[in-house]
Structure formats: structure tokens, C-alpha cells
Design brief:
The complex is a heterodimer of chains A (240) and B (513). With 240 residues, chain A is of the alpha/beta class. Chain A contains ten helices and ten strands. A six-stranded mixed β-sheet of chain A has the order 6-7-8-3-9-10, sandwiched between helices. Chain A has a four-stranded antiparallel β-sheet with strand order 2-1-4-5, covered by helices on one side. The longest helix of chain A is centred in the C-terminal third of the chain and has 14 residues. Chain B has 513 residues and is mainly α. A two-stranded antiparallel ribbon of chain B has the order 1-2. In chain B, strands 3-4 form a two-stranded antiparallel sheet. The chains are: A alpha/beta (240), B mainly alpha (513). At the A-B interface, β5 and α2 of A face α15 of B.
């Protein structure tokens, strides 16, 4: 399943089958991610988008198939080893650490000493709010700020691939606009795989899409083409 | 809502203090002081067990019921170093060499990767190596020379050694005899044994796609262990003489350090080999730690025997001659008095002053570790969501091991430090495990300051109840003086726990979840 033939491929997911406990969640998911692009995983609730991201991080049990990042297989590695290959993960519901200050929430993501200090300016330029609240506890922030913090945390190390899960969930429309800008900016430095229920977000940001339905990847292509294909959108995503 | 809870907590603590004071109306100031200090002392030791327990439970969700046994083992190992340094020197090279095989873990992983077999066959081969290591253990370990005490020969029993050491006399001991094979052969045989075992385990645990390297830096730990072990064996006699004739203050410090290191080592071993495979099965873990605690107790019984004895107090705290009891702090340092006069009462320096101070120092040190270091930051984050911490690229499993080892080390420290005042017995662990559990229930199970507060309250109420047993509690508006019997002392802490939990189900400082 090639999305494009020209670009260099940074991540290749081949026929993976994943389980959570006894539940067979992903039955056959395959796709490729061209370097420097934003790829959106689309599909209805419970289709397996989040599980696909978790499979890449090996946070769920991937029993079959291959995941190849920069020509190296990474399935079977521990999640921390996957992350150490420079893959950043921004989970659903943000997962901000409540007992840590905003600064500590960022510093904990350092992979080598001084990561945060070198990125400090870039991060606070993207997220000026975070600098203001640097000494507050992570959970004292608003939902939007927490989401920004979760994304900022993934920017602390020099990640080459970012997995962003449902960033717009529960956010006000104005904040979502800001979020779209931020993701567009950071996509200039890193490849992004984006999962979001809000088609407005994915359609504005993504270069390519992959549709996942009942644990299988069923369609893929260029986002610009999907936007005009109302029949397909309605069929797979239930929005029109 | 949260503020209201805090006020309830403060009121509860105030009521607790008022009760202690009112009930002790007839108590003289010096009795009040000494009872309070004793409460601090018991609280301090309880805290060392409880702090480890709370850290481990907070991060790993493991209720480590073996914590009491680790406390006890710390005391017995400390005793061995202090009273029988020769045994300690005999056994150290063996322990170091057994560790050395596992220090080569990276090499075994590398070799496991190079062997061209499918995963299932690797596993079978792994078990074959484990079996081989058992055979080697049976062949080698009994032939390793160690000079030890004898349980069934009174003059050579731990009690005799303890008693004589307390008098400042060392019973002469004969050096360990070789048993069939030269000591060095037995020593390097033990390296072979641990290497075979570690390689077997590496094969069993083999996972694909890992990057392996044999960088020279990875060999350092192995090198240090081997050199240290060989040197200690080669210089066994001078080292033993040196320790035997050492000032007992320094020897006690060495004993404490070794006890803590042993606790840390045992904790790390427990976590990596037994707790780790059971992370998804909490009930099994509970049974496992309970079982390990019981096995540990039986081992202690088998090695050191049933009768109780003490670690003699170091010179610094045992003076009783001219100028004692001390009247000023300076006297304590110049005359090394065992007691000091405060408000006309004799306060025991080690038991009632040093132990509480150590408790406070450890409280502050661990707090600093949690708040000011990167590892502390990872622990605090991991308490909430260890998966997310791992997804950030941090080897959380290693931090789990570290915290488990640290918790075990704190318990061992509690054991060795309490041994000169509370003595060593096979049941010492159970008593303080119960104390610690009650303290944690009172303070809040995962709250570190809660562990300290709960331990202090448990220590105080126990000691006050003992005192009330002597002087009685005058019941208001009547002529009745109620004297608690010894049976009420453990019950009193339980009662305190019940009262606190009825009012604050999460304990005084516990988080509402």
C-alpha cells in the first residue's frame, strides 16, 4: 500500500495484528509514511486508530506483522526503546503528570541532558502560555494548555516522527485553530501521524490519509482528493 | 473539598495529642519526655520500613509484604559483619563472583542473539543451562570455605559471640578450612556457575530486534567485581584482622553500610527475577511477597538460630564510667556516655536520640531525592502513569528495580540500626511490618509525608500505652485509674487506625482517588 512513489519512506507498517488482552483489535493494518509529511489516520470511533499508534509504540501486544522505522524493524522493542529511536508520542487525554510542574513535565522528556534548554526558545515561541505558567503544576492548566504541554513535551527531544492522538478532543474552536497552526509549524521539522475525530483538523493539516475500519486499513490516498470525494467521506467517516 | 479534609486531619492530630497529654496528667515531665522520645525512636524505625513500603507501592503497585523480612535480614547481616567479621570476609568474594556472572548480561544477550536457533529452541536450551547451573551449584557451593558460628554448640553460638562482643571480648575463631578443592578454584567455579545461570536466563528471556554491543565500558562492573573478589580472598587474613581490631564505631558504620547494600541487592534480585514477571497479576504478587517473607524468616532461623541476641552498641554510645550519665551534649562526645540526664531523667543516647535523628535525616534525604533529582521526577511521574513515562523513552523497568531496591535498602537500614536497642529475633520483622502497615493506613498509603506522620503516631501511641500501663489513666469524674495491659498496646495502634480510617478513609495525607 504505497501512498506515494517519490518520497523517502520513514515508517512502514506491514500487516500488523494487535491484541489488547484477549481482544483482537487490529486485524490487518498496513500503510507507509513518507518523510516530512502529515499522515492522518481516519475512521469511526473504535476502528483501531489509537491502537495503531499504540502498536507503533509497542504499548499493546503486536503479534503479527512488521513495523519498520528508517529501515530498521522496531516491533517487539520495549516502548522506551521505540521512543529512543526518536519517535514522540502524544497520547489521547494528554497524560500530563499532575505531581510535576510544567517545567518538570517538559524536562522529563529529555533524552540527553540539556535537551530542554536547547529547545526552550523554540518551544516557548510556539507555546507562550507555557512559559507564563512554568512553575505551576501541570494539572493547573486549562484543557487547551494541557494539550499544548503534551505536544511541547514531544518536542523536547529531537524526534523525527510524532504520533499525535486526538489533539482537538474537548477543546474550544478558537483553541483548535491555534492547535492547527502549531501542528502545521512543527510538521516542518518532523514527520507526523495524526489521529483526530475532527475532520476539520485532519483535512486542514494532512497530506495523506489512511482509513481504518474494524481493525483493517481499507483505503489510503492524498488528502486533497479525499476532501472532494463526499461519497467516500460519508461512507467511511459518517460526515459529509 | 480538599481544604475541609485537611482541617479534619489537623483536628484528628490535635485530638490525638490532647488525648496523650490528658491521659498522662499524672506523668512527671521527665517521664513525659522519655516516653515521647521513645515514641520518636519506635516511630523512626517504623518509618524506615514504611517509607520503602510506600515508595514501592506508589510506583510499582506492589504491596511488598517481605519488607519486614528485609528489615530483619538487614539486622542479621549487620550483626554478622559486626560480631563475626571473619565470616563476612569469607563470604564476600563468593557473593561478588556470583554477581559477576550477571554483570555480563550484555554479553549473554549478544551470544543469545548470535545462536542460530528459533525462539522455542532457545528457550529449551536456556532451561538446560539453568539445570546445569543447579548441578554446578550443588558441586561447588558446599566446597567453598566459610568459617561460621555453630548453632548447636553453645560456646560457638551467635548468643555467645554476641555476649562476649558486648563485653568487648572477641572469642578466638579458627580460619575457614578448605574442603577438597582449593578456595580459589571454588571461587572461580562459582563464577562459572553464575555465568551459566545468567546465560540460561538470557536465552529464556531472549527478544528479537535488540541492538547489541560489546563496548569496553560494559565490562567495567564485571572487572571490578572480579578484581575485588579475588583481592578479598587473597588478603582474607589481614582484612579479617583489620576488621577485628577496628574501633567499634567504624565497624558499626561498615556493618550498617553492608546491611543496606545487602538489602538493596536482595531487593533488586527479588524485583528482577520474581516480581517483574507478575506485574499483571497483583494477587500472585501479594502471595509471592508473603511467601518470600516467610521463607526469609525460616532461612534466618536456620542460619542464625531461634534465640534472641543484640548487636552490641558501638563504643561511642556505651560509656558508663566517670562523667556519666552526661549532663551536657559535650559530655556525650567526650565521655561517650550511654545516657544523658534531661529534666532529671536518664535518656539513652543511642536509642532515644540517635535513632530519631537518623529517621529525620533519611526522611529529608529521600524527600530531596524525590523532589530535586531527575530520578525523583521520574518516580513521581511514574506513580501516576508509568506507561507514559516509558513512551517518553525512559527505561521505567529499571526505575522500578531501583525503587524496589531502595525500599528494601531502607528496611535493611532500619533493621541494622534498631538491632542495638530492640535486639534481633526471628519475629522482629513481623512486628515492624505490622507497625508500618498501620502507619501507612493512618498516614495514607502512597503519601510519603503520610508514612512519616503515621509512623510517628504509631510509635507515640505504643510507648504512651506502655507508660500508662505503669501509671494508669485517670478516668475523668471518677476515681477509677485504668491501667492498660500489655495486650492493649498492639490493639491501641489498631484502634487509632480504625478511628482515622472511619473519619478519613484515605488516611490523614492520602490522596482521594
Amino acid at each position: 500500500m504505497r501512498l506515494t512513489s517519490s518520497n523517502e519512506i520513514i515508517l512502514k507498517v506491514q500487516d500488523i495484528q494487535s491484541y489488547i488482552g484477549h481482544y483482537h483489535i487490529l486485524e490487518n493494518v498496513s500503510f507507509e509514511v513518507p518523510k516530512g509529511s502529515i499522515v492522518a489516520l481516519l475512521g469511526r470511533n473504535g476502528a483501531g486508530k489509537t491502537t495503531t499508534l499504540k502498536s507503533i509504540m509497542n504499548l499493546v501486544d503486536v503479534r503479527e506483522g512488521q513495523i519498520i522505522f528508517e529501515d530498521q524493524p522496531i516491533q517487539g522493542l520495549s516502548p522506551f526503546e521505540v521512543a529512543q529511536r526518536d519517535i514522540g508520542y502524544v497520547p489521547e487525554h494528554r497524560a500530563i503528570f499532575r505531581d510535576l510542574s510544567v517545567e518538570e513535565n517538559l524536562r522529563i522528556a529529555e533524552r540527553k541532558k540539556g535537551d530542554f534548554d536547547t529547545k526552550r526558545e523554540m518551544i516557548f515561541e510556539l507555546f507562550p502560555d507555557l512559559e507564563m505558567f512554568i512553575n505551576l503544576r501541570g494539572t493547573a492548566l486549562s484543557g487547551g494548555q494541557q494539550q499544548m504541554l503534551a505536544i511541547a513535551r514531544a518536542l523536547v527531544p529531537q524526534n523525527r516522527l510524532l504520533l499525535i492522538d486526538e489533539p482537538s478532543e474537548g477543546l474550544a474552536p478558537v483553541i483548535i485553530e491555534q492547535l492547527i497552526e502549531v501542528i502545521a509549524k512543527l510538521a516542518k521539522q518532523s514527520t507526523v501521524i495524526l489521529v483526530d475525530q475532527n475532520f476539520l483538523v485532519t483535512s486542514k493539516l494532512a497530506d495523506y490519509y489512511v482509513i481504518i475500519e474494524e481493525g483493517k486499513s481499507v483505503d489510503h490516498g492524498v488528502m486533497a482528493e479525499l476532501i472532494n470525494d463526499h461519497a467516500k467521506i460519508h461512507r467511511y467517516l459518517g460526515v459529509a | 473539598m480538599k481544604k475541609k479534609i485537611n482541617i479534619t486531619g489537623i483536628l484528628l492530630i490535635a485530638a490525638f495529642i490532647v488525648f496523650l497529654v490528658l491521659a498522662g496528667r499524672g506523668m512527671e515531665p521527665r517521664d513525659l519526655l522519655i516516653t515521647t522520645l521513645r515514641g520518636f525512636s519506635v516511630g523512626s524505625v517504623t518509618f524506615l520500613v514504611a517509607a520503602g513500603f510506600s515508595l514501592i507501592f506508589g510506583l510499582l503497585d506492589v504491596l511488598n509484604l517481605a519488607q519486614g523480612t528485609l528489615y530483619m535480614i538487614g539486622a542479621y547481616i549487620g550483626w554478622t559483619v559486626f560480631v563475626r567479621p571473619d565470616t563476612f570476609i569469607d563470604i564476600t568474594p563468593l557473593i561478588l563472583f556470583l554477581m559477576a556472572g550477571f554483570a555480563l548480561g550484555f554479553l549473554w544477550d549478544y551470544l543469545a542473539d548470535k545462536i542460530k536457533l528459533d525462539a522455542k529452541k532457545k528457550k529449551i536450551l536456556g532451561w538446560a543451562f539453568v539445570l546445569l547451573s543447579v548441578v554446578l551449584a550443588v558441586l561447588i557451593l558446599p566446597r567453598y570455605p566459610i568459617a561460621m558460628w555453630e548453632l548447636d554448640n553453645y560456646s560457638q553460638s551467635p548468643i555467645s559471640f554476641s555476649y562476649m562482643a558486648d563485653q568487648g571480648i572477641r572469642i578466638p575463631v579458627s580460619p575457614a578450612e578448605t574442603k577438597g578443592i582449593p578456595a580459589m578454584v571454588a571461587l572461580y567455579g562459582s563464577l562459572l556457575l553464575s555465568a551459566v545461570l545468567a546465560f540460561g536466563l538470557a536465552l529464556i528471556r531472549y527478544k528479537e530486534n535488540r541492538q547489541h554491543s560489546l563496548h569496553w565500558k560494559k565490562w567495567r562492573v564485571f572487572g571490578i567485581l572480579i578484581i575485588l573478589g579475588t583481592l578479598i580472598m587473597a588478603f582474607n587474613t589481614p582484612l579479617t584482622d583489620w576488621l577485628m581490631n577496628m574501633n567499634t564505631n567504624w565497624l558499626f558504620i561498615i556493618a550498617a553500610v553492608i546491611a543496606v547494600l545487602s538489602g538493596i541487592g536482595l531487593g533488586a534480585l527479588m524485583e528482577t527475577t520474581m516480581i517483574q514477571p507478575l506485574y499483571s497479576r497483583p494477587v500472585y504478587q501479594l502471595m509471592l511477597t508473603l511467601g518470600l517473607g516467610t521463607i526469609g524468616m525460616q532461612l534466618v532461623k536456620a542460619i542464625w538460630g531461634m534465640p534472641e541476641f543484640v548487636i552490641p552498641k558501638p563504643e561511642m554510645f556505651r560509656g558508663s564510667g566517670a562523667g556519666c550519665p552526661a549532663t551536657t551534649i559535650k559530655d556525650v562526645f567526650t565521655n561517650h556516655c550511654s545516657t544523658i540526664l534531661i529534666l532529671g531523667g536518664r535518656v539513652r543516647v543511642y536509642d532515644e536520640i540517635v535513632l530519631p535523628i537518623v529517621g529525620v535525616v533519611i526522611l529529608v534525604l529521600v524527600w530531596l531525592l524525590l523532589k530535586k533529582t531527575r530520578i525523583g521526577m521520574i518516580i513521581r511521574a511514574g506513580v501516576q502513569d508509568s506507561n507514559m513515562v516509558e513512551a517518553l523513552g525512559i527505561n521505567v523497568r529499571r526505575v522500578f528495580t531501583l525503587v524496589f531496591a531502595l525500599g528494601a535498602g531502607l528496611a535493611a537500614l532500619g533493621g541494622v540500626l534498631s538491632a542495638p536497642s530492640y535486639g534481633l529475633s526471628v519475629s522482629m520483622g513481623e512486628k515492624f511490618l505490622l507497625n508500618a502497615l498501620i502507619a501507612l493506613a493512618i498516614g495514607g498509603l502512597t503519601s510519603y509525608p503520610g508514612a512519616a506522620l503515621g509512623s510517628l503516631m504509631v510509635g507515640l501511641i505504643q510507648q504512651f500505652m506502655i507508660k500508662y500501663g505503669q501509671i494508669g489513666i485517670p478516668i475523668p469524674f471518677t476515681d477509677i485509674v485504668f491501667k492498660p495491659t500489655p495486650a492493649i498496646i498492639p490493639a491501641s495502634t489498631m484502634l487509632l487506625m480504625v478511628i482515622v480510617l472511619l473519619i478519613l478513609p484515605n488516611g490523614l495525607l492520602g490522596r482521594q482517588d
